């Protein structure tokens, strides 16, 4: 019986292949199914059997085995059934069956096969990886143990690095995977911006130690062995220099990384300062993670319903925006407020009331602020009214970078954005291009003088790649579905506060 189970486990990786057949619970073979043609199975009476398992059944006379070992076969069938009830792939099909997700994306199914592979390996190796939060490491002391423990102790399970275009469902798929993991595991899901802010804050706390990054890595791994980072992107030289040594320590401590990104590993921090010091991190990332691209021509964020009246295009709309802001805060009176961010810094809010904050664009994106300030803002406020978002170009390149970060933080916190702008989300970034896009533009000729060139054109790789994500997220943030979800979240939070007040 153990041999049968071992053979089945060995054949599971072939599930990633596209060709499969369906077997009913009673063993009758059904017609072939091709994941490449977006086949989805919703009936609980079926499970997916790949080609390798089909050959196993035929070549090893599985029917004869089940007759000879009827009791063990029944146990095996129950075991397989229980296994298929858990994991991101099963949950994905359930959500499609319930109408919660759009059906028919073979690229997402292919990615879910990778996530299911990782899920199964983690479940099987949970003890070895020390994923259980209640697991107690044996106390080891003395010179010999210190020598032994100084050696790398990589996890036997490789992580997963998912990358692809905007709106392909990377975050949704990672969250779906994360939510299926046992609650008692040492796991953490965090946005990359927030993660790096925490790292720099911890480094500040351990300043003066011989190797503070080793201490920080120890604290991170004590809290979570499985680390899920959303929107992995490196734009800052300080982050780039920290990441290589930090993750060398983390991987040595058994960390398993699951990350999503718009960029392939080799494209991370492309063209950045001192990138040669960052390259070893890319090598270790590819060594410790399976790299998987999500290819899809569909931006699911743009499939949501149309505008609901929170994004207004035009000039001289200051009075109108303040009127809408007052409607949101109701009977409250907006006053200047102060928000505490990391390391004791304070962010001044021009106007705030009832969870809503009001800022002119210049005060939030033309000043030396960053992700830490924006995360601090949305710990206190759930809605931002932003006045006067400009068209971006070479003259306000820094503000464009901050605006991209701001939209990422709004989206991560599921906050609401009420704003006025000089153009549509697409118009805002029309003058932002990547280096390759700039090279493809029509070259200057004798009949096309320099004065006819767009002097405000901004050639910036990071902004050029990030703009599509920002446009997509601005579209979703202004959709009917997003705003309904936000309203439901506020209502649930209010009910919880009212209930706590009654109990008190």
UniProtKB/TrEMBL annotation:
GO terms for cellular component: chloroplast; mitochondrion. InterPro entries: ATPase_AFG1-like, P-loop_NTPase. The keyword Protein biosynthesis does not apply. GO terms for molecular function: ATP binding; ATP hydrolysis activity. It comes from the Eukaryota. Keywords: ATP-binding, Nucleotide-binding. Belongs to the AFG1 ATPase family. PANTHER family: AFG1-LIKE ATPASE FAMILY PROTEIN (PTHR12169:SF29), ATPASE N2B (PTHR12169). This is AAA+ ATPase domain-containing protein. The lineage of its organism: Eukaryota, Viridiplantae, Streptophyta, Embryophyta, Tracheophyta.
